[in-house]
Amino acid sequence: MAAAAVALLVGAAVIVSLLLFRDIDAVVTREVAAALENEAASYRLLVGEKGESALAEIVERRDRAVAGGVQILTESSGRRIAGNLERIPAAFAEHPLGAAFQYRPANASATSSGEMRRALGILIRLPDGGSLVLGRDIEVQIAATTRIRMTVFLAFASLALAGLAAGYAASRRVLQRVEAVGATARSIMAGDMRRRIPLSGTGDEIDGLSIDLNRMLDRIDQLMAGLREVSDNIAHDLKTPLNRLRNRAEAALRDASGEMALRDGLQHTIEEADELIKVFNAMLLIARLEAGALQGTTEQLDVSDLARNVAELYEPVAEEAGLRLLVDIADGQTIEANRHLIGQAIANLIDNAIKYSVAHASAAKGAESRRATFIRVGVVADGRDNVAVMIADDGPGIAAADRERVLRRFVRLEQSRSLPGTGLGLSLVAAVARLHHGTVRLEDNEPGLKVTLTLPRASPP
To answer: Final residue of a domain: which of 259, 291, 323?
Structure first.
């Protein structure tokens, strides 16, 4: 590609130069021809005033006075009368008005073939049948033009070589960086998922592409790690309810109490099955969210109104648990989003806050530690382009080291394993945030936990 580009550039420059040289030759020829025409006009006037007898002396004088002057005056018979040419050049036979011709200077040796020079002249026919040729030597102009041509062609040759060398060096550098990308890809295919494409530090397009690819690889690595973690957590967290389901069914079959015992066993089995179905439905929903299927499902959503409705739905639950649900929502905060998913995310956050605050309050009974008392739901503008939904409580909170981890699927902290749940609530909130190009941030509420769901107002691309 570099060679082709250089060849195209040099070829275009050569064509332009040839056209330029042609114009230079034409300009030189026109200038000499114009000077000769002016001189010929003077000679015609002289013939009209003094007659042809004065021409011989003037031609001889011109021979001595005009540098590079070429001239000859002949009789009607062709005999030379004056001038530095031996005879009228043959070129005037084909071009009687003006022609370029070669001549040998009067002082040159007859055997010196290298002394032939080039000139441009015009032919004047005299009234008595004689002829006068007035010309100018153009060897100097031709030599200058030739030197310009050689200089330009040498410059083009140097440019072509330099361009090829630069193109080769650039292509080698690009190919080395492409090879680095290939080597990284081969290492990853061989199993080294931590390998990343090295950056040159120049900030060019290849670095930009490498950064995007590295981000993609980071995301793939996270998904693979999540998949491994999900597999481990499924084996750990679903094994217990499945065993419990089987044991209940087996106990119901062995119970000799009769039909009521069987019905009670089947009822508990259905309840356990429903819980398992909820887990798998949540897993399927998260998988769909991770796939990014949002197109055509978004709308202009008043998230203030949505959060207020969800809070009203959970207010009786909070009161029954002995908690105050405080609402501090700014009106008119709109985003482009999927109503169902945003509502589900807010509901999950409020439900978690109630569940863990109640557990903390139960653990604090009879002890000196402070009991959880409130849950706060807020919606505010986060700058000009974002809206923040905040759920805060004064419950047990989450340690800073665990806040990133609890956003993953099936992650449950040790203190919460005795509580009902699947460990999918916060991971679903994180998936909804990613799908809407938003973020989830867990912070210390001093005491308790504050979860901030930040969503952009604009529609995700």
So the answer is: 291
Give yes or no: residues 320 and 253 share one domain. no
More confident residue, 107 or 147: 147
Shared domain check, 122 and 30? yes
- Domain check: are 272 and 355 in the same one? no
Pull the structure tokens for residue 290.
Answer: 């991770």
In the predicted structure, residue 453 carries a pLDDT above the cut 90:
yes
pLDDT of residue 38: 83
Q: What average pLDDT does this structure show over 225-254? A: 72
Q: Are residues 364 and 286 in the same domain?
A: no
Q: Hey, how many other C-beta atoms are within 10 angstroms of the C-beta on 336?
A: 16
The continuous run of DSSP H or E covering 8 comes out as: helix 2-50
Cβ contacts of 276 within 8 Å, gap of 6 or more: 238, 241, 242, 245
Question: Is residue 432 in a domain?
Answer: yes
Q: Which domain holds residue 353?
A: 299-456
Tokens of 436: 């809407």
The answer for 452, left when phi > 0, alpha when psi is -120 to 50, beta otherwise, is beta
Percent of residues, the chain, with pLDDT higher than 90: 10
**What SS3 state is found at 275?**
helix
Cβ–Cβ < 8 Å for 134, 119: no
Same domain, 334 and 450: yes
Give the chain's domain count: 4
Confidence at residue 110, expressed as pLDDT on a 0 to 100 scale? 43
Alpha carbon distance 436, 305 (integer Å): 19
d(C-alpha 460, C-alpha 342), whole Å:
14
Q: Is residue 211 part of a domain?
A: yes
Are residues 273 and 204 part of one domain? Answer: no
Q: Are residues 412 and 336 in the same domain?
A: yes
Host H or E run for residue 392: strand 386-393
Instruction: Give 20-72 pLDDT, tens digit per residue.
Output: 777 777 777 777 778 888 877 887 777 766 766 677 778 777 777 777 788 88
Q: How many CB atoms lie within 10 A of CB 252?
A: 18
CB-based contact 371:361 (threshold 8 Å): yes
How many other C-beta atoms are found inside a 10 Å radius of the C-beta of residue 422? 21
Instruction: For 159-169, write each residue's pLDDT tens digit.
Output: 878 878 887 88
Both 245 and 340 in a single domain? Answer: no
The tokens 């040498």 sit on which residue?
154
Neighbour count for residue 423 (Cβ, 10 Å): 20
Comparison of pLDDT for 105 and 42, the residue scoring more: 42
Residue 179 lies in a domain: no
